[in-house]
Amino acid sequence: MSRVVIALGGNAMTAADGSARPDDQRVAIERAAEPIADLVVAGHEVVITHGNGPQVGNLLVKNELAAHVVPPVPLDWCGAQTQGTIGLLLLDALDRALAARARPARVAALVSRTLVDADDAGFTEPTKPIGRYLPREQAAVMIEHGQMWQDRGEHGWRRVVASPEPRECLDVDAALVLLSAGYVVVCSGGGGVPVVRTEGGIVGVEAVIDKDLTAALLARDLAADVLIIATDVAAAVVGFGGPAPRALAVVTVDELTALAAQGHFASGSMGPKVEAALRFARSGNGFSAITSLDHIGDALEMNNATVVTAAI
Amino acid sequence: MSRVVIALGGNAMTAADGSARPDDQRVAIERAAEPIADLVVAGHEVVITHGNGPQVGNLLVKNELAAHVVPPVPLDWCGAQTQGTIGLLLLDALDRALAARARPARVAALVSRTLVDADDAGFTEPTKPIGRYLPREQAAVMIEHGQMWQDRGEHGWRRVVASPEPRECLDVDAALVLLSAGYVVVCSGGGGVPVVRTEGGIVGVEAVIDKDLTAALLARDLAADVLIIATDVAAAVVGFGGPAPRALAVVTVDELTALAAQGHFASGSMGPKVEAALRFARSGNGFSAITSLDHIGDALEMNNATVVTAAI
């Protein structure tokens, strides 16, 4: 029996064409629930976290188009909203998948926050593009409202925000209580709602946190045995796009660190997944696996995945 | 030590003028957290549920104004979104209020669903008005999309939806686990996300559930000692608007049932609160109290509130 943290992204959350229509999200998550339910039936303790990029993108468009009637909500609220909807979908889907396996439905979804540093460099030099492209004139209006936008060439302008380092999953203790009581727990969705600690208490900030980096922190704090980063592909690939691409199987932290330093993994896609896998494996609790949804069961056996271990 | 369910509504959630701007909500909830934290310090077990009317109203406007770009989300998703944002505000506010009292912050917010009957009369004869008024032409567009709208006179047209009877709080077991571990638990916000049970599993429905009626169900299922319905006024009033209004203090279920039958309580405001208070008091677990936020501590002592007991 292992304690497993699964980070859902990519095609586990939306249609194959990236669409995040409500029905597309429901269907994708129902499919994701099947292999997860198999892990539960096999006796593993399971915690699920998830991305929310397309969903937040949709909320930002709504913010923008309704701003003359309804006050826009800040980015931390957008994150909390997606924890609500994706949490709801996961509750329903896992209830069903577990019932089909004659298991009692014990699934809980927590609204959960991730602490970041108020002086994280991301706040002074935002780098993370979010939301839709707009023509320069419309971007200028948002810039007047204090947002930072960048000229992205032919597509137009796009908002950039801070993507600070996750420092602490604030609601991990509640997740542990539920996990110990036999629950599948959904938490830290979208990397967790970004908050900072101030003299006046904890307050939300305008930022997005990389969900894989938060997953690594969550897995460490839950003393998980395995972190599985479920994505669109079954492995991280060295020499991607080159003449001799090579899918990585089992690698050590040292080996993968060296490959990452050579620039094999794209900063916007596989890069953060590799970094998250490295962080958890370095923590000494267990191993990390990057794989597709179909192979999360195999990944626990170190098969059909890029597996990152402290040492072989 | 009592187990207390508190249903927050009205001025606990928005500014005095009803505004649901993000900062207004934050300030209102920070104020609500103070007397709640006092109950925790006094040793009581506390579960919080809350309304979401103005918040869902805002989300519906966004749905409508962005529909040409972003797919609208159904009402059950709107409910889940408000559980996210209001849950987040309550986590932050209670963390702060408890820290100020030198108590460890043990607060958790659950995404939670309420089961309703698929054949509830509300689905064939919707009665609950939601969202903003629109001119007839705009309402006609939404009617073509399958929504039911009604002519409400000089204000214009307004959407009506089902407001079915809450039958079961599906995530109450997770709330009990957290409560037993010493957590203040936020759950069943907005009456809970409305779902029905089908052959294919649990699915969301286009409906809103009265948050006070859900609170009564929640209080019963949690075996609470007290249900406190926190609203804008310190008591239910008999003869409201008449020559000799009389605030109710301690009344029995039989007395209040008779007064309700006489039509003393408005169907859109005090009516459901009285009905919820009656339901919980009839369940035989404990007593109900309708009062303002300032008096929730007094209400536990049966003071400064309309208190409903099985018998005196």
Set down the secondary structure blueprint:
The structure is a homodimer of 312-residue chains.
Chain A: E1 3-8, H1 22-41, E2 45-50, H2 53-65, H3 75-99, E3 107-109, E4 113-115, H4 121-124, E5 128-134, H5 136-144, E6 149-151, E7 157-161, E8 168-169, H6 172-180, E9 184-186, E10 193-198, E11 201-204, H7 211-221, E12 226-231, E13 237-238, E14 246-247, E15 250-252, H8 253-261, H9 270-282, E16 287-292, H10 296-300, E17 306-309
Helix pairs in contact in A: 1-3, 2-3, 7-9, 8-9
Task: Provide keyphrases for this structure.
homodimer; 312 residues; alpha/beta; Carbamate kinase; 17 strands; 38% helix
TL;DR of this structure?
The structure is a homodimer. The first copy, chain A, is built from 10 helices and 17 strands. With about 300 residues, the first copy, chain A, is of the alpha/beta class.
Q: Could you say which structural class the secondary elements and strand pairing of chain A correspond to?
A: alpha/beta
Order of helices and strands of chain A: EHEHHEEHEHEEEHEEEHEEEEHHEHE
Q: Which fold name corresponds to the CATH topology of the domain at 3-118 and 164-224 in chain A?
A: Carbamate kinase
| Quaternary status | homodimer
Shape of chain A: globular
Rg of chain A, rounded, reads: 19 Å
Low-confidence blocks of residues of chain A:
none
**Helicity level of chain A:** 25-40%
The greatest interface between two protein chains, and residues involved on each side, is: A-B, 53 and 53 residues
